[in-house]
């Protein structure tokens, strides 16, 4: 048997995050040099996203059901849910406020002097048709699926969580009689995560296809006229993650930088495909490895994808002010507060799917008649680039939220969390 020092370690270039990063670099170059051919790479990105999203519902169901069924204290389910929703509301509202403040300080739309009559209203018409106002009652009723099968067929995360909680509570009430089914679900969960790990090997190909299409279709040149808005949003997102979430993380006993290193594969993947949903399965798996319980991860992460959209929240208030400023529409303090209030509701319907935030923003602007909704055509062409950081902040925010709730529930000690993150942050051997 060879000595330990002679054991060949995994080379750095075999790491998934390195492969995804290289794929992104090659995709940007390919999209810039050969736009037409790069646009043809779109099926690679779409195919990878569909491969992951096809099993997300099953992962959430198995994780939540087996987690709740194995809990000794059923009060913990309600307690975890309550704490998570409280955290979501406070942090996402803070994100909305930060977007509003930055928009007023930086004025990213000043100087455009756009006449709304000359804008392409038809380009926004499709989104306006989807952006129907939804009351609180309708939103709550939407959580209940028409049938159990319907929740899985539509892939609605919140509906799947609702069904899973009911099944988990029922299995817990059955006690020993439900243990065979719980054991089966545990085995199914392990199998599904194994499938995810197999599919994640295709992540570099999916990242290449999605990024090549984005650069090929929209072009880096399209960023020029709206560079101030894009730069403002990117810097605001960076500030939110490093400072706001950094303070939250520090209070919870861990470093936000180490956490970002820990989820680097998910960070790069989300940046490449402009959607946070395909990163959900591996994010859940990594959070469990840190020491968060399966039930808590299964409750907080999927629910956060609907209720804790920090990146989307910042984007909505910042972009709303941009459209008003670009079209020389003066907004009173009262109108800005109205946008803020409405966005607290509409942002909850914007999940990690690319384009959902744009629809939610159109719905928000419709409540202020003085702002021309057609002004959204100004940012339609760069929405894909904006969605990269939107989805990224959403995903990071949900990871931090899960750890915070786990700390509140005393599932993790400060020392254990720091030790696990430090171990995972060690660089691979060259």
Describe the SSE topology.
Blueprint: H1 16-33, H2 35-39, H3 42-53, H4 56-69, H5 75-106, H6 121-130, H7 136-142, H8 148-154, H9 157-174, H10 179-199, H11 203-218, H12 227-252, H13 256-262, H14 264-273, H15 280-290, H16 294-307, H17 310-326, H18 333-346, H19 356-365, H20 377-380, H21 383-408, H22 414-424
Helix pairs in contact: 1-11, 1-14, 3-11, 4-9, 4-10, 4-16, 5-12, 5-16, 5-17, 5-18, 5-21, 6-19, 9-16, 11-14, 12-17, 12-21, 14-21, 15-16, 15-21, 16-21, 17-18, 17-19, 17-21, 18-19
Q: What is the 3D shape?
A: globular
Q: Determine the number of helices (DSSP H or I, runs of at least 4 residues).
A: 22
In percent terms, what proportion of residues is strand? under 5%
Total beta-strand segments: 0
The N- to C-terminal Cα distance equals 23 Å
Q: Specify the structural class.
A: mainly alpha
Q: How does the major sheet shape up? A: none
Strand/helix succession: HHHHHHHHHHHHHHHHHHHHHH
Helix percentage: over 70%
Radius of gyration: 22 Å
Mean pLDDT: 82
Residue windows where pLDDT falls under 50 for at least 5 positions: 1-7
Give the key terms.
430 residues; mainly alpha; 22 helices; 72% helix; globular
How would you explain this protein's 3D organization?
- With 430 residues, this protein is mainly alpha-helical.
- Helix content is 72%, strand content 0%.
- The protein is built from 22 helices and no strands.
- Helix 9 runs antiparallel to helix 16 and helix 17 packs antiparallel against helix 18.
- The chain is globular and about 70 Å long.
- The N terminus is likely disordered.
